[in-house]
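Hi support team,

I'm opening this ticket because the web form for multi-chain structure prediction keeps timing out on my end. I have pasted the exact lines I submitted so you can reproduce it. The total is 586 residues across two entries, so I didn't expect it to be a heavy job. Is there a limit I'm missing, or should I split the entries? Thanks in advance, R.K.
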Amino acid sequence: MDPDLVSLLITLKLASVTTLALILLGTPIAWWLAQSQGIARSIVEPLVALPIVLPPTVVGFYLLIVFSPDSLPGSWWESATGTTLAFSFPGLVIGSIIYSLPFYIQPLQVSFSSLRQELLEAAATLGAGPWNRFLTLVVPLCRRGFIIAICLSFAHTVGEFGIVLMIGGNLPDETRVLSIALFDHVEALDYERAHVIASGLLVFSFALLFLLYSLDRKWQKSPLAAQS
Amino acid sequence: MSIRLRTALRRSEGFELEADLSIASDRVTALFGTSGSGKTTLLRMLAGLERVPDTEIRFGDDTWQDDQVFVPPEARGIGYVFQHLNLFPHLTADANLQYAETRQHRHEGMGRSEIIDILDIGALLAKLPSQLSGGEQQRVAVARALLSHPRLLLMDEPLGSIDAAAKTRILPHLQRLHDSLSIPVIYVSHSLDEILEFADSVVMLERGQIVSESAIVDFAVSNRGASQTQAAAIIRCKVVSHEETHALTEVEFEGQSMFIAAERYRTGDTIRVRIPARDVSLTLERPVGTSILNILMARVAEISDPGDGPTATVTLHCGDQALLARITRKSLIDLSLRPADQVYAQIKGVALITEHDR
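Hello R.K., no limit was hit. The queue was backed up. Here is the completed structure from your submission:
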């Protein structure tokens, strides 16, 4: 198979797994942030936002240290799986989750905060338990927040470079994502192949944002706009 | 049926919520008080929407909250109508009703078609909440609460967020509902009119404490009667027919007939009417050739003669219900009225509670 095609598959797999993990992990964090006040929130909120301002290489550097077999998490992973986290696909997923976390949590947190609590209270008095309320009210009423969060974290994972370079390295069948492949082609002065990847990523990013904005405009006009 | 609530909630110096309510199973109990008196907090605690530590709540034999137990709102089997419009915005009125129907607290309760008919929401079912007026949304919200077949219906200022005109339109529906309900209702309001229209008994709250509990008839007399000129009786009548030509409605009151303006109500509806004591005069013979439309035969039950000043108040009995008449002390002597005398009460002003002059 064409190595660039392999990179494309790795990229899509990484973005999908990362987004899925963020839905499971980030949703409760966003909910908690939207509900809670006080000291815990004032610490967690900037912590979640850190990857926006921090150079990816800083995040990558610390992850590399945590992943090393000398550290507790690194050695635990090695004894459990027999492989190291650094320069592996699972390591890449962990890095991507941390790096894309704010892009998932922030739109969702805004959406959750604007949800009227009384609607959930009404559902409770009608006999709906917490999970039921989440699925029947929170998900449909905050669908705009969910879709923005999912699209942004997927696109952001596709576009990451610095962290992958630090913790993933450049293993052709394991960790070489499209942005790395592009970098390789440019270094090798293979501009023809570089153009294919660069223009592909450009079109993909534009198409995703175009879709997102037009969906958003449609929802602004819908009767639910005031709710979400 | 009794509801007990004891709590150590203190919001400020001198504010401590404590309530021990006993409520009849087919009656509307109004919680009445100024804002800050704790009535909404009390209601939210009963619903389980507010969890205040060191609180005990018992509903009949069930414990809803104590040191070990906290039953969440979804397991209490209650219905709650909020002050703010609170239909699920992404669901049609019909789907809002279905939400309640698929999660019913128990089997027995009013049926869907009966509820839709009483609240007259059949034509609204296909619409989204944003396409309905405030009054319409609140009618659907009441229907939704009832369709969950609650054991107790809690209403927190349900007419608080809709305008006066919509209020006048929604009240006949609530009245009709009142006659068909067989569960206890606790109705929070600071509007005297709403309470006089809808409640059977009134619990007055002040700074978290119950200061009085009274039946609505006594409440109307005592509260308005604080100043003698305002004293009024609240009576219940049944709508017999509408007289289109005179824009009047014939109602039946303890076997006698009266005419009032109440075209909003349906034949067979029970309505409440307010008769100010100052609008009632007394004669010993049935008067003829008078412009007064409503003349009722009644029996003198009690004469309250203050001993000085120009006027006295006479309580009259018509069947099981009472009227008040404010007459001069001179007339009292001229007619030589005594308890158990038969008299004719000429009633000048009869009005639906929500339509009287303020």
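A quick check on our side: Chain A has a mean pLDDT of 90. Let us know if the file doesn't open in your viewer.
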